[in-house]
Design brief:
This protein is α/β, with parallel strands linked by helices. The protein has helices spanning 61-70, 130-142, 164-172, 182-191, 216-240; strands at 2-6, 16-25, 28-37, 40-46, 75-84, 94-95, 99-102, 147-148, 152-155, 177-179, 195-205. It has one domain (2-112, 145-240): Nucleoside phosphorylase domain (Rossmann fold). It is built from 5 helices and 11 strands. It binds hypoxanthine.
Length: 243
């Protein structure tokens, strides 16, 4: 079964014939939906909670990823909004990132030594699963949605947006887009042996790349527009694959 993790912009996204499940984990309870998409069973997790009350640094990432595994999920596709830093990541553009730089701090970012999990140094050279990345890119092609096939995702702590100097530094570090949720999500997925990849949608230029403060109305408008295309893409992805 595919696990689908969605966040900002997907508050109203629903499956068909939904059953809401509460999964007990060693890290707390997680509520998620199991239902149909294109007549296939999918587990849908709203990472900020259905009413979007959890800020990125408050998300119980360990419980959430554990709950997906507990439900029998083997493959996870996560959707995340980002601010664009590279020219290719202009607002309105989609990217399947291939790398991450983690700028978060203080998040519970490993299962090491907990719940009977062994101390392992997971290989994280390539933080996203290549076969899942290719499946997303293939679905985008079939759905005729243009998606960049690589990019480095900078994960910041949030919930505040960045300063202009922070964005300059992340660009010098080789980052292309900035968001707040890929970590520790991606690392925990790897620790649990889940195949994980992301599709990101740019909703604004990162701080300092255009004059003035970030405009939240413009960000919302970009989001609504992109979410329609992404729902399309996810439909094609689910119908074309047996995850
Ligand atoms: N910074 C961090 N996260 C984001 C942004 C941003 O500019 N836009 C959407 N998510």
């Amino acid at each position: 079964m595919l696990g689908l993790i969605v966040g900002s912009g997907f508050e109203h996204f629903e499956l068909v014939d939904v059953k809401t499940k509460t999964v007990e984990t060693p890290f707390g309870e997680v509520e998620l939906d199991v239902g149909l998409m294109e007549n296939k069973e999918v587990a849908l997790l709203h990472r900020h909670g259905k009413d979007h009350h959890l800020a990125p640094h408050q998300i119980p990432y360990r419980a959430q990823m554990w709950a997906l595994k507990e439900l029998g999920v083997k493959t996870v596709v996560a959707v995340g909004s980002v601010g664009g830093m590279a020219a290719e990541n202009a607002p309105g553009h989609f990217t399947v990132p291939d790398q991450i730089v983690d700028y978060t701090f203080g998040r519970e970012s490993s299962y090491w030594g907990e719940a009977g999990m062994p101390m392992t140094h997971i290989d994280f050279t390539n933080p996203f699963d290549e076969s899942v990345r290719q499946a997303i890119l293939g679905a985008a092609q079939s759905a005729k949605i243009f998606v960049h096939n690589r990019g480095t995702y900078a994960c910041t702590q949030g919930p505040r947006l960045e300063t202009a100097a922070e964005v300059r530094r992340m660009i010098m570090d080789g980052c292309d887009m900035v968001g707040m949720t890929a970590m520790p999500e991606a690392a925990l997925a790897r620790e649990l042996g889940l195949r994980y990849a992301m599709v990101c949608f740019s909703v604004n230029w990162a701080a300092g790349l255009v004059e003035g403060a970030l405009d939240f109305e413009a960000i919302k408008a970009n989001m609504n527009h992109s979410v329609k295309s992404l729902v399309n893409l996810l439909g094609v992805l689910v119908s074309a694959n047996n995850f």
